[in-house]
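Box 3.1 — From sequence to structure: Monocarboxylate transporter 5-like
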Amino acid sequence: MEPHTDSGWSWVVMFGAFLVNFTGIGVVMSRGVYLNVWMEDLEASATSTSLVVSIGALMMALFSPVSGALCTKFGPRMLTILGGVLIMGGAIVSSLASTVSLLVIGNGFITGLGASMAFVSSFQGLALYFNHKFTFASGMASVGISFGHLAFPPLNTYLIDVYGWRGSLLITAAVSMHVAVAGAVMRPVALMTAANKKNADLNANVSEAEVGVTEDNREPDNNAPKPLTTTQGNGQALVRMVIERSTSDNSQQFLRIPPGADLPSDEDSTKDDEKDSARDNGANEFSQGRRSGFRDTPHSIFESSVRRLLVFKHFLFVTCGMKHFVLTPRFKVVVIVGFCHGFGKLSLVYVVPRAETVGITPERASLLLSLIGAGSVVGRLSHGWFIDRQYVTAEMTFAWTLLLFCGSIFLVPAFDSFPPLGVLAVMTGIGYSVSACLLVAIVRTLMPSASDTAAAVGFLILFWDVGEIIGLLLSGVIYDVLRSFDVAFVTGGVVLLLASSAAFVMYFRKRMKYCKCEMNRAASI
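Predicted structure (token representation):
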């Protein structure tokens, strides 16, 4: 079916994407409440249990390009349903685990792969069903992540107290199956790709050529057998061309032999047949000998290797979408900015420990994280309406909110009391959430078609999560060496300042290009 964008069923798809982020990503991101329980019940160290959550995030990042390629191949509906099944399966395997290794397999590899499929596919579904209101729809869908962060940690704590951690995982496994239900509403759509358009044009040309008279200006015989055709445009034209060239008129099927000509006798015909048969047998033996003798020659091995490399190149550049990263300079800049944006996420992790080190009570320090979540909800809900109404552009809003995110991190080391840190927490939530949503929206505008969004978002998430992991590890090393989080916050601010500078350069270059086009248009008039 061809979708009616920005209306009708599109809003159901948006709710499905919200449900994916709420029940799928929210459940996965709230696994941190199980760490202390796993350490006590399984008698494991903090390092080994932290690997369960870390490997899950790493697998989600590494599988994102693969999920994007699979989503481009099979569509968002199938990938979202499969992602929900894998998230549920990972939770069930984790509930049966008796060692940390099984937890790593269940909650790390299986759940990470499922979350990657569901997360990437949800943006592909939005890109197919939304055009002018994509920014608003992606913001409304991504707010499910913020609601999941607020809802599932206390819910998991309650379920652990009542049913134990194994029963809690089984209940969350049932909740995560709502991801599959959300994927079911993402009905497949038929997009007119370049290949389909070429085949359609070829079929139209062939049909036009068949109407009227034949090449020798005779009316076509309706009783004549119809040539074989295939369902593909290229194959259809090829089969018809071969059949037309292999048939002829009755006047050309037989040779006219003049009277008195010497005709070959039966014995001569028999000898000729024996010679032809011997020649054919010799050719077949020679052909088989060549095939058996040259099967493993260096030349044939080289050809097969080149063929495999070409297939892998097609998969990597076309199916996985790396061609956009290689051929689109702006996409390279966006991916680098996404890496820096992920690096700056250290503020969301270390804001509570840093507040406790400066003398703020643990209760008020944890409230800073809630304020970040509240700012995130406000930012995700508000920005899309203004951008879709064209009051502001996505590039300009992205640059300013990224600068807001940068400034809120830079100023954290300057304050030791709760009120200013609370204000900075709200600013951090707004800047982080809006810039994160607009990263995906900008990538959507850079792609030539909506079907390429999943592959591009997959590569963006890969660099995004790699930057997050590097930022967290580097911040931990800085704290171990200097025993202070202030240097880590300053480092994150510097990285985000570079990213915001690149965003402003990208915006002003686009603005100058637009002004130049307007001037040329005015001069031509």
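Summary of the box: The CA atoms of residues 79 and 117 lie 6 Å apart.
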